[in-house]
Structure formats: structure tokens, C-alpha cells
Amino acid sequence: MVEPAAATGHPLPWARKDIVSASVTPSTLDELVGFLLARLDDDDAAIAGLHDGDERERRQAEARSHRAVVASAQQLLELRGQPNEKAVRDLAQSILRSLATPYAAHPAFREEWHAATR
User: Which of 56, 88, 108, 118 could make an SS bond with 50 (beta carbons 3.0 to 4.6 A apart)?
Assistant: First the structure.
């Protein structure tokens, strides 16, 4: 896989102003991803303390899946010059917000990160 910085010359291409919608600012996207990864680290620590092997394995798989979704959303935010790129970036932001919403009670959670409800 090509590293984002090598591909675009920008250390955080998904956080560039010209490729994210105004609904969440680039710095907020960076912070949202950081928040999500920190919460997943917290979850990993809690999972390590579980005694039920089946439950521990299920929750570890869930955490790996969430990390993969975050990484995929970051890649979608990097799209440039593609048809429907704004719609795809907006969807990626929605995915990140949806993953963050279960952590809304955490003190570092920001209100603008709530997933939109339909």
C-alpha cells in the first residue's frame, strides 16, 4: 500500500481543506480519527482483561473490524479528481461519526461528531 504522504506530499491528505466538506473541519477530522483510535485502544485494554475466551475473541475481532473501517474511511477521504468524490468523502465522514457516537459519554467527545440521524 502506498503511504498517503508519498502519494500526495501531504502528511495527512484526508485532513486537507480542499478535500473535505465544510461539515467537519480538517483539524476536527484529524481529532475525530485520533479520538476513535484512542477509544479503540481503551477497548483493547478492557478486552485483554476479559476471562471469557469466546467473548474476548469476538470483541477483539470487532475492534479489528472498527480499525479497518477507520482506515478505509481515511482512504475515502483522500479521493481526488474522482466522480462523486464529495459524496464519497461525506459518506466517509458519516462512517467516522457513526463509529464515534457510541463513545458520546466520553469527556473528549465533541457534539459535532454525533452521527446524523434520519
Answer: 56
Does residue 36 contact residue 59 with C-beta atoms inside 8 Å?
Answer: no
- pTM beyond 0.85: the answer is no
Q: Are the C-beta atoms of 98 and 41 separated by less than 8 Å?
A: no
Q: What are phi and psi of 52, to 5 degrees?
A: -75, 110
The set of cell numbers assigned to 30 is 484529524
* Alpha carbon distance, N-terminus to C-terminus of the chain: 35
CB atoms under 10 Å from CB of 24, counted, come to: 21
* Number of CB atoms found within 10 A of residue 4's CB: 18
Report residues of the chain scoring pLDDT below 50.
Answer: 1-22
- Concatenated DSSP letters of 28-79: HHHHHHHHHHHHHHHHHHHHHT---HHHHHHHHHHHHHHHHHHHHHHHHHT-
pLDDT of residue 29: 84
Please answer whether residues 51 and 39 qualify as being in contact, where contact means their C-beta atoms are separated by less than 8 angstroms: no
